[in-house]
Design brief:
The chain is mainly beta. Helices cover 11% and strands 43% of the residues. It has a seven-stranded mixed beta sheet with strand order 1-13-14-15-16-4-8. The longest helix is centred in the first third of the chain and has 12 residues, at 58-69.
Length: 279
């Protein structure tokens, strides 16, 4: 319940606990009328299913499969020159120039001790300037990195949403605290990462992260290797919010590219926030 996280500098502790999910080393895509693909004999219809879940139009899916067949990296899976922040009860989608999509959120679980009927706000951001997509990790580091929402005012990104709500509606809380379970996630067309978190908001006291569990990283065409999963600060204080993070590497097959992902969860001021970056 203290200071906002803007401008926070976070020291990362890298923990060697690799978790590997991998396909074969080379990629061969055979497309049929259902938009399924075959990676060296391994059926990966889940690529098409994820595209459908991300509301990617069928015609765009065809173009993306053609790009994959040519061994090219999709825009959504490239390093980009902006960070994404998701505030309480938001879901954000980013649509890239080639039509690929990534989505971010922290959704309540059915097992959450505290239930909430605060409406979810879905916002769709469309990247209009291809210069925001980098060709390499070094290219990102050499340029300034802004937030997704900061870039809206520049015209390089457009945003559409279904409204917003600032009203906090709670049910089944004690008089002093509420305990929540959420699934924190970043979905991409080919790569994804997620974990579960239980956190406590305290009326008149410091909020805290009680536990994190079930980290999951995946690559539908390549490898995903977990590098770190930890609560780096358990309780908020006057300096900064409590926080936890998942860090993982993706290497896409066929020489399409590689990058590191950082998915962070913050709690403080009786609310939460999620940030994602890659390079």
């Amino acid at each position: 319940m203290k200071k906002q996280i803007a401008g926070m500098v976070m020291a990362l502790v890298v923990v060697a606990s690799p978790q590997l999910v991998m396909a074969k080393e080379s990629i061969q895509i055979e497309k049929n009328t259902q938009n399924s693909v075959n990676l060296n004999g391994v059926n990966t219809i889940t690529i098409s299913e994820r595209m459908n879940a991300l509301n990617i139009p069928k015609k765009t899916q065809e173009a993306l499969f053609t790009k994959l067949k040519q061994g090219k990296m999709l825009d959504a899976d490239k390093p980009h020159r902006f960070n994404v922040t998701v505030d309480s009860n938001e879901i954000k989608q980013v649509v890239y120039p080639d039509g690929s999509v990534e989505e971010f959120g922290a959704v309540p679980t059915e097992s959450s001790p505290t239930k909430t009927n605060l409406p979810t706000v879905r916002k769709v951001y469309t990247v209009k300037d291809s210069s925001l997509i980098a060709d390499s990790k070094a290219d990102v580091r050499l340029n300034s990195v802004l937030s997704l929402d900061e870039l809206v005012s520049t015209g390089k990104i457009e945003v559409k949403g279904d409204g917003s709500s600032s009203t906090k509606i709670r049910e089944q809380c004690s008089t002093r605290y509420c305990t929540y379970d959420r699934k924190v996630y970043r979905w991409g067309t080919l790569t994804s990462g997620s974990f579960f978190v239980r956190y406590v908001t305290m009326s008149g006291s410091e909020d805290m992260i009680e536990s994190i569990w079930d980290p999951a990283v995946s690559a539908r065409a390549g490898t995903a290797t977990q590098r770190a999963f930890t609560i780096s600060k358990k309780r908020e204080d006057s300096a900064s919010w409590a926080r936890a993070y998942l860090r993982w590497d993706n290497v896409l097959t066929g020489g399409a590219g590689s990058y590191t992902n950082l998915l962070r969860f913050f709690v403080g001021n009786d609310t939460f926030s999620v940030t994602y970056s890659n390079d």
